[in-house]
């Protein structure tokens, strides 16, 4: 007479647990060899191989219904199709987990800001090349429109990007630090790309390496305009010229209004002498 194992012993043999075997029985996926008069589930040694296969498919991520379908139609083409679908799902999960991992790592890294910058005191410093995702150009936005642009931009990235320590801010279409032209200048929302860069359906721009004039300001329109005037005065006093558009870089990641943190950096690249 074939020796049968009680559920706890069979679960131990199969490296699983009693609860899983009961669930598989109740869901119609894997039944015991027999149920005795006392209502105990009993299993044969030969059933070890089928439960091991089922557990392997579950570990790969197949659902109960998908495994049932395969067991009913044990065709390699059916399993191949399911595994291709699973592979695509895993790829998406890996992509998402990389975003989460990058966010966690960035939260552990000291924010990349210029520590020596003091409010309203322009400095000259070398800045390395950096790449940013960016939105389309927008001009003269209301608070509501700005919120919609911000939401759309980060929905195309990942909302977790808002919280990481990669630099964010604006690239503003203001080629000279003229304060009274700031209010009407076009802008792009920008977010520094991770390394290695993840792929998103957004344009990218590169900030060239070089010497920059930088001033730390409070991120309100009057204070930004004050900072632009300080930059203009500094350039004139030291007979320097800037090139390219204005980079507005947030300090920190706590966005308070209109895509700005409380303080930020105004940056213009200097022309080579």
Automatic annotation (TrEMBL):
Location of the HTH merR-type domain: 4-73
MF terms (GO), sorted A to Z: DNA binding; DNA-binding transcription factor activity
Protein name: Transcriptional regulator
InterPro entries noted in UniProt: DNA-bd_dom_put_sf (IPR009061), MerR-type_HTH_dom (IPR000551), MerR_fam (IPR047057)
Organism: Limosilactobacillus frumenti DSM 13145
Keyword Transmembrane helix: no
SUPFAM superfamilies noted in UniProt: Putative DNA-binding domain
One matching Pfam family: MerR_1
Keywords: DNA-binding, Repressor, Transcription, Transcription regulation
Domain of life: Bacteria
């Amino acid at each position: 007479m074939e020796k049968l194992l009680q559920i706890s012993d069979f679960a131990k043999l199969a490296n699983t647990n009693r609860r899983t075997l009961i669930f598989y029985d109740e869901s119609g996926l894997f039944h015991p060899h027999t149920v005795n008069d006392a209502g105990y589930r009993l299993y044969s040694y030969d059933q070890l191989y089928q439960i091991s296969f089922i557990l392997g498919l579950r570990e790969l991520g197949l659902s109960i219904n998908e495994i049932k379908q395969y067991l009913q139609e044990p065709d390699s083409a059916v399993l191949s199709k399911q595994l291709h679908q699973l592979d695509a799902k895993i790829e998406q999960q890996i992509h998402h987990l990389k975003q989460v991992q990058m966010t966690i790592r960035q939260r552990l890294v000291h924010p990349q800001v210029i520590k020596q910058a003091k409010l309203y005191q322009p400095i000259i410093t070398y800045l390395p090349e950096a790449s940013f995702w960016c939105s389309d150009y927008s001009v003269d936005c209301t608070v509501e429109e700005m919120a919609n642009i911000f939401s759309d931009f980060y929905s195309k990235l990942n909302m977790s990007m808002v919280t990481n320590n990669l630099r964010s801010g604006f690239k503003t279409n203001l080629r000279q630090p003229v304060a009274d032209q700031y209010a009407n200048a076009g802008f792009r929302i920008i977010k520094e790309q991770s390394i290695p860069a993840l792929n998103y359906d957004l344009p990218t721009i590169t900030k060239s390496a070089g010497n920059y004039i930088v001033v730390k300001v409070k991120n309100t329109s009057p204070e930004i305009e004050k900072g632009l005037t300080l930059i203009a005065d500094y350039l004139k006093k030291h007979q320097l010229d800037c090139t390219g558009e204005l980079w507005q870089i947030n300090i920190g990641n706590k966005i308070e209004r209109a895509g700005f943190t409380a303080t930020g950096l105004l940056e213009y690249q200097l022309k080579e002498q």
